[in-house]
Amino acid sequence: SPLHQFLAELPKCEHHLHLEGCLTPALVFKLAAKNGVALPSPEDDPAYASPESLAAHYDNFGSLEDFLQCYYRGLRVLVAEADFELLAWEYFVTAAEHGVRHAEVFFDPQSHTERGVAFDTVVRGFKAACDRARRELGITTRLIMCFLRHLPPASAAETLASAVEGGHLDGDGDHHDDDNEARRTITGFGLDSSEVGFRPELFADVYREAERRGVRRTAHGGEEGDPTYISGALDGLRAERIDHGVRLVEDPALLRRVVEEEILLTVCPLSNVCLRVVEHVGQLPIREFLDAGVRFSINSDDPAYFGGYVLHNFCAVQQAFDFTIDEWRLIAENSIHGSWIGEKRRLELL
Length: 350
Ligand code: ADE
Ligand code: ZN
Description:
Layout: H1 4-9, E1 12-14, H2 25-35, H3 51-58, H4 64-74, H5 81-97, E2 100-107, H6 109-113, H7 119-137, E3 140-148, H8 153-165, H9 178-183, E4 186-192, H10 204-212, E5 216-221, H11 228-236, E6 241-244, H12 252-260, E7 264-267, H13 269-274, H14 286-292, E8 295-298, H15 310-321, H16 325-337, H17 343-349
Parallel strand pairs: 1-2, 2-3, 3-4, 4-5, 5-6, 6-7, 7-8
Helix pairs in contact: 2-3, 5-7
The structure holds adenine and zinc ion.
Residues 18, 21, 64, 71, 192-193, 220, 223, 271, 301-302 line the site of adenine (ADE).
């Protein structure tokens, strides 16, 4: 499209990116061989015959649940600290090529600790990649630890305790000072996995503790769940952002509240098409959000699975909505303002 070069160069922030969702078929096979992890036999699941057949499977998910099965099965190849570092590093390299200047990335510690991988192995590996991204690519980063909502709240509480014991939440909570913020290895908490039936309010205790410790708060909501999953995250968890949030458009009063409270939605267009939330990008309420003053960023979610990294998502939105340069500048500014960074970094990005 004529705006492709402009979109490529626009300083982008990514806020909705699961590091485990960056596991490409090539990396699945490479790490399985290195770590001696058995993949499903091709008789049991023909998708695992080769990286190419696995890639073809990634293009055809029926729903969020269908995708999550594949996601949890694949991530079992991640075992050593170096595996986590490599996974995140490969993402940062591609993100830099796509014009990402600041990335706030999710990880799912319980998906690893449940398999016997130590919490600190995961965090150390991801942290090493974040430090390298800053040094070698000039990308600033934040780590956001997500709780899996299909597991009991007691498991989330144990995960919180691991983060506290490891000193990963230490910091004095001054969100305007970049140096203070950088001292905390884990900046925020999120909530992900199966949405419908696992209401946000179940996790009120760990989120209250997050707030007490000055940890930032977001939660997936309104992807497959109705708008009460969004209001539940705002009221029950005091979430500062909503991940996805596209079903907000079904509740005009809640939409006005999101505008007034300057809640950022982290929208993931290609993900929504892949997981059949909508049939095509043009059906997403992105024009409505822009016109109503809802702040949102555009993100890739699980790019290894959904056929595109962040610039692919920007271009898909442009193709569907044909925004003007000024509209794109507003989208980029809103995503900088919605980032969990201090004033110094904000001014650099603006
Ligand atoms: N985990 C990884 N990607 C996810 C998504 N899009 N929704 C919920 N949980 C997820
Ligand atoms: Zn997500």
